[in-house]
Amino acid sequence: MRTIQGWTALVTGATSGIGEACALSLSQHGARVILVGRREERLQALAARLDAPSHCLILDVRSREEVERSLATLPPEFAEVDVLVNNAGLGLGLEPAHEGVLEDWEAMIDTNCKGLVYMTRALLPGMVKRNRGHVVNLGSVAATYPYPGGNVYGATKAFVHQFSQNVKADLAGTRVRVTDIQPGMVESEFSLVRFKGDAQRAGKVYEGMEALQPADIADVVTWCVTRPAHVNINVVEVMPADQGFGPFNVKRR
């Protein structure tokens, strides 16, 4: 196991769920953590719980200007980021494609794809220059396994996977690593956001089964980051035991 004591990790979407759990886990392993999110009160509350020094960035990753400006003004002790956890992302709606809400589609593309690209492009040059770093992208099993209503969300996560693989190809020969983590069902605010605050509908998603918890994914992220420097975990696909694969969708007339 490689120590990350004294490293600096930046986690987007740190205000809840997987992002919050990743910040806690990385802090427990000795990393300084930059907490990125849009809800200041939540970030400050999380910062108070961490075991290592932290810095809060109130930032919307969808804005290229905000990303570039905020990262350029990091305090010196947080300026050299060793681990980037691109966790900020969302799914919106489950309508079939011909009934999809374009504003929802744009929000998913802007956050899941463009926000991830902005953060990666801003921090990757420093990692390459120092010949040390790790980009961890939170994808989804939806990148591989389509489901009704998952149209644009699944497409954005397929982008995350392919972008991760191609960046890894560019970095071959350096000690900068890239990992795509692809969770299945995780009990978090994901469904509450997808259904725009409908708690009853969101709760039914996890009813009668034991979903993954954010801490389960944080464990995987920390395991990947703490592998020896010459080891790159390319892709991790993880589902709860209660989730599996469905048959082909055949509509009969």
Describe the structure.
It is built from 8 helices and 7 strands, in the order βαβαβαβαβαβαααβ. The chain is an alpha/beta fold. It has a domain at 80-238: NAD(P)-binding Rossmann-like Domain (Rossmann fold, 3-Layer(aba) Sandwich). Helix 3 (64-72) packs parallel to helix 4 (102-130). The model has no long low-confidence stretch (mean pLDDT 97).
Within CATH, the superfamily of the domain at 80-238 carries the name NAD(P)-binding Rossmann-like Domain
Radius of gyration: 18 Å
The fraction of residues in strands falls at 5-15%
Overall residue-averaged pLDDT value:
97
Number of beta-strand segments: 7
Q: Can you summarize the main beta sheet?
A: 7 strands, parallel
- CATH fold descriptor of the domain at 80-238: Rossmann fold
Spans of 5+ residues with little confidence (pLDDT < 50)? none
- Read across the widest sheet, the strand sequence of neighbours is 3-2-1-4-5-6-7
CATH class category label of the domain at 80-238: Alpha Beta
Globular, elongated, flat, extended or rod-shaped: what is the shape?
globular
Which sequence of SSEs, written as H and E, runs from N to C? Answer: EHEHEHEHEHEHHHE
Structural class: alpha/beta
CATH architecture level-2 label of the domain at 80-238 = 3-Layer(aba) Sandwich
